[in-house]
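Dear support,

I submitted the protein below through the web form. The confirmation email said the job was done, but the results page showed an empty box. After a refresh the structure appeared. I'm attaching both so you can tell me whether what I see now is the final result or a partial one.
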Amino acid sequence: MTTATENGTATNAEAQAWVEMFTEGWANPVDADTFCDHFEPWFQPDVRMIQPSVRPIVGKQAFREEFARPLFDLVPDLHGIVENWAADGDVVYIELRLEGTVGNRAFTMSTCDRVKLRGGRAVERVAYLDPAPLLKAVAASPRSWPRFLRSQIHSLRRRS
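What the results page shows now:
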């Protein structure tokens, strides 16, 4: 069980509230903007997001433009189901099953997000996932190739 301390450790109530918000946000997002509008109040301004295959992004605007827009452009019906979670101090671990369609190819992908909280808001999120199910769906759907390649090229340009 987590408890509040002088060093800013999240309380169990903060962790639970964050997970409830996370669950609601992934349940049935309408599009990239409504997804971001839901999550951004729960982020510190300098939130850092790290995941495989893309460079780390920093800030709410980067979350919207460099994470959510390309993702929902590629997978418009993307949604997620929280399967489990745990909290340890100021860190929340969330197991999430993502489902969506690329072209007409359905896929399911599992991830575990490690979210570090400060004042009940995320300061850092690291996603641990295997992107193979998404990549297989993209490979099997040639119509999705241009969108996917644009997002990858855009990510490469940001790295330099």
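Response: this is the final, complete result; the empty box was a page-load delay. Confidence is low (pLDDT under 50) at residues 1-8.
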